[in-house]
Amino acid sequence: MNTRAQASTPRLNADELVAVSVQGQVAHPVARASAYRVGHDGVPRVLPGTGGIVLNQRIGDPCVGLAGDHIEPGAALHNNNREVVGPRDGPNNALITYACVGNLARIVSGPCSGKVGLVTGKHGGINHVLVDFPTEVLLRLQIGDRVQIVSHGQGLRLADHPRIEVLNCAPRLLRRWGLVERDGRLQVPVTHLVPARIMGSGLGKNTAWRGDYDIQLADRATRARYRLGSLRFGDMVAITDADTRRGPLYASGRVTIGVIVHGDSTVSGHGPGVTPLLTGPAALLRPVHDARANLAEIFGVRRAAVPRERSILAESDRRQRCVVREAPPRLAF
User: Fold this and answer.
1) 3-state SS string over the chain?
2) In which domain, by residue range, is 71 found?
3) Residue 175: CATH number of its domain
4) Cα–Cα distance for residue pair 189/175, rounded to 1 Å
5) Cβ neighbours of 29 (radius 10 Å)
6) What is the CA radius of gyration of the chain?
7) In the structure, what pLDDT confidence band is assigned to residue 332 with cuts at 50, 70 and 90?
8) Residue 332 main-chain phi, psi, to 5 deg
9) Is the domain of 309 the same as that of 172?
């Protein structure tokens, strides 16, 4: 029995929403001038990063400890068209603004035409929309294939909770998430609590509608205290003392709940990215722990991995270097 479907769902202004089709192309990975990324430990590394089609990482999989940097699970979309009116990148601005987590995405060109996936988040800076497809589709998908999204969620409100704002969230996600109204408060299933003091890259924006901001994992004690080594792609997390109504902001007594959209990074100030979904006063918006609060489980896409603490890449690399240094020398004869 699906107990999530039976949980009381707050009233939505669904009859007021407008559904608009937007489109992007599967984005090629982009390399910087230097092949190296210098980590917060001072070590230069050559690692896969953003863009492309990630074949072996999907929502539900661990996002910490990978030999990668800002890995985007599934397929990354970018609209490469140029507009003759307004900003030249207007089509991609519309794609990343309109798309909402939980929207359906249909492939409309190439060998996988007709296959349907799920929008799982937005990655700011690189300005990608991320989509999960079954592995057999990812294996046949091509760079440049077009994907059309029925964007539905802009303007979404909780009718009985005017002080809680909704961002980047499709109505079908709110209906399946397992939200419960109790004593005037909204209880929301999450896998982790994250203190706002360790949030990094993405701060300074005046909107939370076009991307994410990152959880810094370099401090081992904080990571262990909040079990952040067990984060997975697609996990719903609550950032305490955080307000994202007008962009990411530290604000005591408030909470932001979002979804993990990309993987960890060795670079200072960076880490797993969170696209905000709900933000409001902590007195009204209450996170409740649920290990199944992951997009893969919420939408029945696949079973999420069992949460397990993993070391960040910088620490596992350091241990490996120590082992190499301590190994006894071999004789040459």
Assistant:
1) CCHHHHCCCCCECHHHCCCEEEEEEECCCCCCCCCCEECCCCCEECCCCCCCEECCCCCCCECCCCCCCCCCCEEEEECCCCCCCCCCCHHHHHHHHHCCECCEEEECCCCCCCCEEEEEEEECCCCEEEEECCHHHHCCCCCCCEEEEEECCCCCEECCCCCCEECCECHHHHHHHCCEEECCEEEEEECEEEEHHHECEEEECCCCCCCCEEECCCCHHHHHHCCHHHCECCEEEEEEEEECECECEEEEEEEEEEEEEECCCCCCCCCCEEEEEEEEECCCEEEEECCCCEHHHHCCCCCCCCCCCCCCHHHHHHHHHHHHHHCCCCCCC
2) 15-151
3) 2.102.30.10
4) 13
5) 15
6) 20
7) low
8) -85, 0
9) yes
Total domains, the chain: 2
pLDDT band at 87 (very low <50, low <70, confident <90, very high): confident
Q: CA 177, CA 4: separation in Å to the nearest integer? A: 7
Mean model confidence pLDDT for the chain: 94
Distance (Å) of CA 251 to CA 197, 242, 281, 282: 10, 5, 10, 10
* Same domain? 179 vs 75: no
The arithmetic mean of pLDDT across residues 166-173, rounded, is 98
Q: If pLDDT is split at 50, 70 and 90, which confidence band does 326 have?
A: low
What is the CB neighbour count within 10 angstroms for residue 167? 21
